[in-house]
Amino acid sequence: MNKLPLSAFIICQNEEAYLGNCIESLEQCSEIVIVDSGSTDGTAALVQSYIDKGWPIRFLHEPWRGYAGQKQFALDQCTQPWCFNIDSDERLDEPLKALLPSLLDAPPETVGWRVARRPYLIGYGYTPERAHERRNLRLIRQGRGRYDLNQKVHEGIVPDGAVGAAAKGSLLHYRPLIIDEQILKENKYSTLKADQQFAAGKSARPYKMLFSPPLYFLRLYFRNGLWRCGFPGFIEAMTGAVYAFLTAAKIYQRHALKRHPNHDDMDRRASKR
Q: Taking phi first (over 0 means left), then psi (-120 to 50 degrees means alpha), and beta for anything else, what does residue 98 get?
């Protein structure tokens, strides 16, 4: 296969179960940069097995810098004219692979491309093409975009020019977490988001606890098309609503604790001092 002038970059830690299929979907890339932040499973051995087979992989080790910082480090290691951000649990579907050459042949004023992502739902499989997440900037010209290092979660490339949307094709996201594990993930990400917004001086907006969850659900379920996936799609949209509620509630509580630190009104010891 003729290689494209494209570097894929991946950050990982303990991704042995997922990384292989991700690498397999990147056979068009001239370079694959993998940055590991301290795996203790078989990730390193897996990557080495692909290197031994001749895959154009550069395997680097870097202590954790946070999501944005780690991805920026990985992007900085890329040497090809175009760079593609992909996670260990993602892979390119066939329509996106077929479209890549034309995306890379874009006019100079186009510095990047947004790509859709389709998750794998327990009890359903990958969502259909018409039920995908919003398109995010994943493909960027070398030197024409950087990560905002202030973003603790949902980090994205900030481009310095015009960005297009890939007309077809998707990243397939394969990490089927049962609801027990998914809620833990939403809790973790909502904490990062709340900390980020609190540190940035965002004020508490109690009404968001009321309105953000249903709006988040409606966006995922109807606009993104998860209604097409039956109850698995309903569960996916509902967990998104939980994330929205937790984020708003955590921001509210952080401000509440700053204004009124916790104090036990029935603490008899304090009155005796």
A: alpha
Q: Which of 153, 173, 193 is the last residue of a domain?
A: 173
Q: Assign residue 53 the CATH number of its domain.
A: 3.90.550.10
pLDDT digits (tens, 9 = 90+) for 5-51: 999 999 999 999 999 999 999 999 999 999 999 999 999 999 999 99
Does 62 lie in the same domain as 27?
yes
Euclidean distance between CA atoms 254 and 63, whole angstroms: 29
Residues facing residue 15 across a β-bridge: none
Q: 188: domain range?
A: 179-259
Question: Which of 173, 207, 235 is the C-terminal boundary of a domain?
Answer: 173
Q: Are residues 31 and 142 in the same domain?
A: yes
For the record, the structure tokens of 100 come out as 């890549």
Task: Convert 42-64 into a string of H (helix), E (strand) and C (coil).
Answer: CHHHHHHHHHHCCCCEEEEECCC
Q: Are 82 and 141 in contact (CB under 8 A)?
A: yes
Are 93 and 178 a contacting pair, CB within 8 Å?
A: no
d(CA 142, CA 76): 9
Q: Given the structure tokens 């066939």, which residue do they identify?
A: 94
What was the pLDDT predicted at 273?
58
Q: Does residue 191 sit in the same domain as residue 113?
A: no
How many separate domains does the chain show?
Answer: 2
C-alpha span between 210 and 201 (Å, rounded): 21
pTM (2 decimals)? Answer: 0.91
3-class DSSP assignment, residue 92: strand
Residue among 239, 247, 260 nearest 209 (CA): 247
